[in-house]
């Protein structure tokens, strides 16, 4: 456990994040829950906590600089809660909705939110296109769909000044070519995830006014 604690602390400092001891413990507890329930709910292909810290927690937290000043966020296709749960732990002021159509995964998410005491998180089951009662500042996802599909399926979820933050692996050249012409690609930035030897990019997009 101490190794994991150290790995998390090193990763946070490389990301330039200062978290309280309680927040750090919650992130480690979240990883323990992922590991505990993984065989039941099939949440991740990863098996050990150390890898989950880099591939899931630190990877999720690269979202934080892109959502400063926002009040509401929806994590579409949240799966095991990435990036929504680590984000919720670090931003208790942010109201976060975790959306997934897989009932096993939403069962896990409910469980995790209760055990971690995340009062700023709502878990919703069902298909994204059926969500019509909520609009948010930021719609995010990690490996949910290609950019064009992501935009089309979630455009009704953005509020007046809302935008998309899509977390991608390698630079999505082809996907960017298919972004609809009513959408502005604000920026595509390469992200360095500590202790993760894989390419990551953040794609920020918004509807043209």
Task: Give a description of the structure.
- Helix 4 (84-90) links the parallel strand 1 (72-76) and strand 2 (95-100).
- The chain has a seven-stranded mixed β-sheet, sandwiched between helices.
- It has a single domain, classed as Vaccinia Virus protein VP39 (Rossmann fold).
- 39% of the residues lie in helices and 24% in strands.
- The protein is built from seven helices and seven strands; from the N terminus they run αααβαβαββαβαββ.
- The mean pLDDT is 96.
- Helix 2 (21-41) packs antiparallel against helix 5 (103-116).
- By secondary structure, it is an alpha/beta fold.
- The longest helix has 21 residues, at 21-41.
- It catalyses: guanosine(527) in 16S rRNA + S-adenosyl-L-methionine = N(7)-methylguanosine(527) in 16S rRNA + S-adenosyl-L-homocysteine.
- It holds the Pfam family GidB.
- Keywords: Cytoplasm, Methyltransferase, rRNA processing, S-adenosyl-L-methionine, Transferase.
- Its EC number is 2.1.1.170.
- This is Ribosomal RNA small subunit methyltransferase G.
Tally of separate helices: 7
Number of structural domains:
1
Distance between the termini: 49 Å
Order of helices and strands: HHHEHEHEEHEHEE
């Amino acid at each position: 456990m101490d190794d994991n604690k150290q790995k998390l602390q090193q990763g946070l400092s490389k990301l330039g994040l200062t978290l309280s001891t309680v927040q750090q413990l919650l992130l480690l507890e979240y990883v323990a829950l992922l590991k505990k329930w993984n065989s039941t709910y099939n949440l991740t292909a990863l098996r050990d906590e150390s890898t989950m810290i880099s591939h899931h927690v630190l990877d999720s937290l690269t979202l934080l600089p892109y959502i400063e000043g926002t009040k509401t966020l929806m994590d579409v296709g949240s799966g095991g809660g990435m990036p929504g749960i680590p984000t919720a732990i670090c931003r208790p002021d942010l109201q976060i909705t975790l959306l997934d159509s897989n009932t096993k995964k939403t069962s896990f998410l409910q469980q995790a939110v209760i055990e971690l005491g995340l009062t700023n998180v709502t878990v919703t089951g069902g298909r994204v296109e059926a969500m019509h009662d909520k609009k948010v500042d930021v719609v995010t996802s990690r490996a949910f769909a290609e950019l064009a599909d992501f935009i089309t399926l979630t455009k009704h979820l953005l509020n007046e000044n809302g935008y998309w933050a899509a977390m991608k692996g390698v630079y999505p050249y082809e996907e960017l070519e298919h972004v609809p012409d009513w959408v502005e690609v604000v920026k595509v930035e390469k992200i360095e995830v500590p202790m993760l030897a894989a390419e990551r990019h953040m794609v920020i997009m918004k509807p043209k006014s």
